Every structure is written in C-alpha cells, then in structure tokens.
C-alpha cells in the first residue's frame, strides 16, 4: 500500500508540474522539448539510484566477510588460552624452587649498597676526625655536612640490614657500634649550637651569619626528621637517635635563657639595699625592652617566617615575667615594696617605657597582653598594703605627737612661720607623711588613692582626740607649778595655730586627692575633725586667758576697796599686764586671735562688774559716790582704749561692754534719790539679765538706800518693759552675788 501511495503522490506531483509548464497556448509548441528535458532528468536520477544501491551492497558484503574472520580468530584465542592454562598448572612447582634466586637478588642489592658505601665505611674514622676539627674551628655548616654524610651511610646500611632480616639484632648492633663516634659528634655539634642559641641576642648583633648557620643546620635536621618519620610509616624502620627534634630543643633553650635572664637581674637583697626591689624591677624593664627590640629588628631576619620568632620570644618573656612577679608577690614584702611591685605590674609593664614602646608596635599590642599576676593576688597585696599602712600611720602619728610634746617643755620659744605666727612642725610632719603615702598610692590607681585618703583622715580623727588630751594634760601639769614649762604660753599659742594649719591642710589634701563624687563620704568625718580642732583651740585659748587672769587676780581684788577709792593703780596694772600678754597673743592666727581678744575684753568687764557686786565697799556720802563713779567711768574708758588698741582699731563690737560699767556708774553717781528708781529701771531695760540680787548689791554699794526702798524698787521693776540692744550678749548671768554669811555679819 505504501508503494501505491507513493505512485499516487508521484502522479499528482507530475500533474502539477505539467500544469505549471502548460499555462499559455504558445507553450504547447514546446511540448516535445519539455518531454526530452524530463526524459534526461529521469535517466540521470535512475543512474544515481543504481550507483547508491550498488555501493550499499558492496559494504554489506565486506562486513559479512569481516565477521566471519573474527569468529575464526576468537576460536584460535580460546584454544591458546586453554594451552596457557595447561602450561601454568604444570609450572607452579618450578616457581616454588626459585626462592634461592630471590634471596640472592636481595643480597645483591645489599652488597651493592655496601659496595657503594665502602668508600664511606672505610673512611669513617677519618671523616669523624675531620668533622671534630671543623666543630672545634667553629665551621659548623661544613661539620654538619660531613655529619649528615656519615649518618646517611649508617642509616642506609641499617635499612638494608633491616630489609634483609629485621630480627637480626647482632648485625644491627655491629653497624651501630662501628658508627659509634658519630653519635658523640652529633652531641658535640648540638652543644655548639645551643651555646650560640643561648647567646642569640648578643650573637645577632656581632655575628648574625653564625646564627643563620645554626638555624640552617636545625632546619636541615628537621627535614631529615620528617623524611625518617615518613619512611617509618611505610617500612617500620627508623634509625637510632631519630627524630632529633632540634627545633623544639632550640625553643626550650631560648625559654630557659629568658628565665635565667630575668631571675639573674636581682643583684641586691633588702639587707644590703633598701631599694633592692625598685632596682631589680628597673633592670628587668630595661633588659626586657632592649631584648625585645633586638628580637624584633635583628633576630626576626635570621629565622624563617614560620618560626614566628618574635612572637615566640614575646610569649617567653611574658611567661618568665609572670613567674617572677608571682614569686616576688609571695615574698614577705614591706608596704613600699608592695607599691613598687604593683605599680610596675599594673602600670609600668604596659606603659611606653616597656611593652607600650612605640618601636615595638604594631607587633606588641598591650591591650591583648594578659595580666602578669591574677586579680586575686593583686587584691591580696592591696589588702596587705592597707593593713601594714594602717599600723604604720598609727605608729608614725604617735611618734610625731611624742616628738612634738618633747618640744613643749623646751626653754626656747617655738619657731614662727613667715608671718610671725608661732607653730610647731607637727602639722607639716603629719601632712607630709599623708602626702607621701597618697602620692605612692596614686601610682597604682585612683581607687587605692581614695582608700588611703580615707584611712589618713580616719586616723587623723583619732589622732586629734589624743592631741586634745595631751594639750589638756600639758595645762594641768603647768597649773601644778606655773613657773614651768618656761615657754608654756608660746607653746599653747603654737597648739592653737596648729589647729588652724590642720584645718587648712585637711581642705587642701581633699582638694588635691579626692574626686568630687567622693566628697559626701568624707563630709561627716571632716565636720567632726573641724569640731575637734575648734574645741582644742578654744580650750587652749581659755587656758591662756586663765593664765592672764591668774596674774590679774591680786589687782582685781584691789578694785572697789578703800585703797582703790584712795587712788590705787590697779586698773593701770591690769591694762599693762593684758597688753603684755597680748604681745604674745599677736602670734595667734586670725580667726582664733579675734575670738581671744573679744573673750579677754568680756572677761575683764565681767571681773570688774563682779568686783562691784562683791560689795567690798559701801559709799558713805554723795562725795564718795561721785568720786567712785568718776573713777569707774575713767577706768571703763581705759579698758575701751586698751581693747581698741588690741583689735588694731578693727572696731569689733566690744564697745557695748564698757558701756555697762558706765551705766552702773550712772546709778552710783545719781544725787537725787527720788530718781533712783528711774535710773535703775533704765539699766534693767538695757540689760534684762540683771537679777534682783544684782540690784540689791548695787544699791548696797551706793550706800544710801534703805531696806524698804530696795524692796520697793525691786518689786516695781518686775513689771517694766525691756529694750535690750539686739547685739547684747548676757553678761550678768555669769556673775554671782555673795549672800551675807555669819562671819560677814560679825565684821
């Protein structure tokens, strides 16, 4: 059916073509021509078709003949294999008998090796001698070259022996013994290498090529080690003395050298030199920095990069330093030594003077260096330092006070400062000691500095209490015999001035060493110290005034007596004595001196008024009253003049005190008794602390008021208003009036 379809298609195609050719009438004339052309075309196609079919048939024929040949060949091969198989089965026994030949071959290869090494074997003793000479002459590279040849000969012989008969230890030992001297040579050479390595930091400056040779020898040995270990994996054989591990040994030697270098810097002990530790640490600092700089700039170039020699050295030094610092920390160190050590470990080590030196960067990064001693050890050292320091400070303060007390009984005046104020060296000594310890603590860190400051101020607090007690004892001793000590007044002044100096020193110490945020923690202790200092100064001032008034006592006793009325010079003497004392008191520092002058003024007036209230005199008539009152007014003026002079006209409000004497004089002077009540009530309104007994005493001194009149005045006064001066400090309440006693009545 396919054929039919094809025929149909062909006819259809032909019809189409003919239709295409004959589209116009004139083309019919050419029909013959067309037919011929188509006949030609057809003949050509048929010829091509035939040729193609012919060549395909040829190909098939050839293929068939080749397949035929191949089949024959396969049959032949099969036959041959059968023959070979038969032969092989027959010859198995023959192969078994060839073992002797195999052994002979092995022996031959060993003998070949021996023959090859014969020259070397016979010349072993001579090469050993030559190598020995080279080592002695320091020609290490050549010596090593010969040593390698010797080892190579021995190792090859041993390897052949091992291959032939690994169990035959006798022959192995024979070879080993024959090459015995060679082992000594290797050790001798190693000894030379290690000497160079130990001195590498010196050698690298003087003779770097020597160091490079040593490194090359070590590298060669490392290479041989690797080769031998590889062979061991494959064959199980390794020559005696391998692997030598010379590179590892070299690093161990370097490490030991570094340790010795650091330990060896301690030249002194505490017994021979107080500064032994400072010196030891300074030498370490210098050595380590110098060594690392050499390692970085020179040593690095003599070693292959994979040795990472600089970093290895850096770690060795760090390790050795850490070990050394721990040893030092474990010793029984004194306070100043603890500080030296901690300051070095925490600050110097990473500073620009050492590991932070710009020439060591960027290889050395101080931030990535571990701590030389653990925080735990640091804390232990710090707490030991604080407890030692505490007992030291207590001891120093006690000693300072003892020394100062010895001065108090001297027969020479205390020294004066540049402004002429008396003082002793106590505050300077105490604060110099505090300063020194604070500066030392500051070397370590802020935290310690603050702790030490707190400690100093805390101890200062208890010290001031002792100072106060000592000043009190000093006064009591003096009162037993007022002639002694000779310079009592001057030293008391020095005590007062020291209080002021202490106050100022505490402030400046805090300003200098205390961080602002710590202020609050200290304000309480500061306030209490200030209070103590004020008490000491106040007590000392009052002791000095007691001195003055003990000297004034006989003169005060003369006031308001007949002798006084007759014209004694008691007040003149009082003024001279006070002025004389105040020449010394001029050496008291300002705040206290001012208080002192005011207090003296007040006490003089109080004593004067007390003398009036003692009723030692009772004026007989108006004449005496006038004379007495004028005398009182004059003496009030004398006092006013004296104290104006003492305050150097600074016009302190002390005027009012002398006014009281004048106001009393007015009451005495009054001539008209009917105005007495008025005068007294004016007095009371000004000075409201006047009591009834004061008025009674005053009227008794006047001498002209009857008992009833006194009674009336006193009773009426109670209702009166008071208008005191706002600045008035009550003065009468300190003054007691003696009540009449029996002996007084009998007089």
UniProtKB/TrEMBL annotation:
GO cellular component: exocyst; Golgi apparatus; growth cone; membrane; midbody; perinuclear region of cytoplasm
InterPro entries recorded: EXOC3/Sec6, EXOC3/Sec6_C
MF (Gene Ontology): SNARE binding
Key words of the record: Acetylation, Cell projection, Cytoplasm, Exocytosis, Golgi apparatus, Protein transport, Transport
Keyword Transcription regulation: no
Origin: domain of life: Eukaryota
Keyword Secreted (UniProt): no
Pfam families: Sec6
One of the protein's GO biological processes: protein transport
Subcellular localization: Cell projection, Growth cone; Cytoplasm, Perinuclear region; Golgi apparatus; Midbody
Subcellular location, principal: other
Subunit details: The exocyst complex is composed of EXOC1, EXOC2, EXOC3, EXOC4, EXOC5, EXOC6, EXOC7 and EXOC8. Interacts with EXOC3L1. Interacts with BIRC6/bruce. Interacts with MYRIP. Interacts with SLC6A9.
UniProt similarity note: Belongs to the SEC6 family.
Function statement: Component of the exocyst complex involved in the docking of exocytic vesicles with fusion sites on the plasma membrane.
Protein name in the entry: Exocyst complex component 3
